Structure formats: structure tokens, C-alpha cells
Amino acid sequence: MIGRLLLILGIFFFMWLGYRFLKKIWLDRLNDVETQEQETQKIQQIKACRYCNIHIPENEGIDQDGDFFCNYEHLDSFLKHKAKHKTEHKP
Ligand SMILES: [Zn+2]
Questions:
Q1: How far is CA 29 from CA 3, 16, 32, 35, 73, in A?
Q2: From the centroid of its chain, how far is CA 47?
Q3: Residue 53 and residue 22: Cα distance in Å, rounded?
Q4: Are 49 and 73 a contacting pair, CB within 8 Å?
Q5: How far does the centroid of ligand 1 lie from the alpha carbon of residue 46, in Å?
Q6: What count of other Cβ atoms lies within 10 Å of the Cβ of residue 61?
Q7: What DSSP line would sit under 68-83, residue for residue?
Q8: How far is the CA of 3 from the centre of ligand 1 (A)?
């Protein structure tokens, strides 16, 4: 009688271990999918340069006060152009 009880307890114990093992694998898999999705989102964020309108990934350009530029040269040119534009329209 006790032997059978121990056997049943043992079976439950191994089922519990198996459940934990499978759960861990499943969670690891879910985390992998999430990181992959986040990485693709990062790559897919493409912005247009405010100066020359070329489209490049956000992480390769420069974000300046909400304006996006493909390189520092265009950021500089744009700011200069803006400043010039402002002075021209002064009364
Ligand atoms: Zn540009």
C-alpha cells in the first residue's frame, strides 16, 4: 500500500519536473521571439533626411530637435539655411 503511494507521489514529482522543464523552454522561446521582433522594429524605423530627403535607418542618422538628418554636414547646412532664411525675413 505504502509502496504504491510512493510510486504515485514519484510519478507526480516527475510530472511536475517535466512541467517546469517544458515551461522554461517555452518561456525562453517566447523571449527569443520578442527580442527578434524588437530588433526588426529597430531596423524598420526609416526616416527621411530633412535636408536632402534621403531615407535611411534611424540609428544611422542624427536626430536634432525632432528633425532628422543623414549626416552632420546636412544638419549643419540645414541649420545655416534656416538661420539665413530667418534673417532674410526680418523687417
Ligand atoms: Zn541628407
A1: 39, 20, 5, 10, 44
A2: 15
A3: 50
A4: no
A5: 13
A6: 22
A7: EESSHHHHHHHHHHHH
A8: 79
pLDDT digits (tens, 9 = 90+) for 32-78: 888 877 776 655 689 999 999 999 999 899 999 899 999 999 999 99
Cell 517544458 locates to 22
CA of 36 to the centre of ligand 1 (A): 29
CA of 44 to the centre of ligand 1 (A): 19
Residue 73 CA, ligand 1 centroid: distance in Å: 8
Distance from residue 22's CA to the centre of ligand 1 (Å): 51
Residue type, 17: L
pTM for the model stands at 0.48
